[in-house]
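Hi there,

I know you've been waiting on this one. I reran it after we fixed the sequence typo, so this is the corrected version. Both the input and the resulting structure follow.
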Amino acid sequence: MPGATPERVAARYFDTRSSRAHLVTIQVQQGHAELHDAQGDVLRRAPLASLRVSERIRRGPRLMTFDDGAYCEVTDHAAFDAMLAATGYREGMVSRAQNSWRMAILSLVGLVAFVVVSYFYLLPWTAALVAKTIPSTLEAQLGNATLQSLDELVRPSALPAADQQRIRDSFAALRRPEDAGHNYRILFRKGGRIGANALALPGGTIVVTDELVDLIGTGAGMTGVLAHEAGHVAERHGLQQVFQASVVGAMSTYLFGDVSVLLATVPAAVLSMRYSREHEREADAFAVQVMRDNRLPPAALADALQKLEESHGGRRTKQAASDEHDDGKSGFFSTHPLTRERIEAIRGGGG
């Protein structure tokens, strides 16, 4: 690198022959770096092209290393930067970014944007693809494990056997799209804290609470709710939610350790998951199509959801004074987010 610069930069020189530091000054002359001792004598001279200069660290010394491993420590960053600039030396992009608040802020914004896009778009898209590849046997095992966890929260059903069979028969009689690999069965439990609810477990098990039957009956509305839950099973929404929760859990495990926590909480994740609005729209569309194919009014499903909304809305009002027992956090809408648009869309599906 041609040219000379009059600047001299103080440094500590380590020659590899001993651990003692030599106080020197660095000067650039005719494309060479020269080390001068306290008397001004040249201790060493080397071509600039043969030297390695470390990246700048805000408070740490920079190293200028020779071919044989000897090096200089420089703490006067400003003077060293000026000397390097005079030789035409340019910092790498990473080093410049590390020492720029603007780049740091832009990097932080970019990281946040990447996390948001990954969580809300890339992760669901990947989950949908992965869910389709999971074997039915594994899905059934996950469903059984989830049912065992659920049975720790609920009690045996007190619903009359005749009502249970009527609901099962109505569902079995439905003409539904092909859904290979799912063995549907309807089970009943007394919900207790989970209230009026229906839960679609991986593999095809649908759990209906007594409270839901008491609220909406055993007719077309119940059939519509079961068709909705079958839509979640057919589209493997539960598996998608488990995959997303597992990815987040795996990242936490990678950062904080203890993989046993991840394995133990998969069934719990199924029970506590909240379907996305997109999943709900897909399950609604599935249910509406099934009801239309079976000459049942989709409005019956909308009426059932309306009753659920009014029921849970009333409970929230009564419990508003108690933060410890807020039923707004339990029941059908704790796992199935409801909007006015959904009900209107279902009513519109009746043609």
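Quick highlight: The mean pLDDT is 82.

Best,
R. S.
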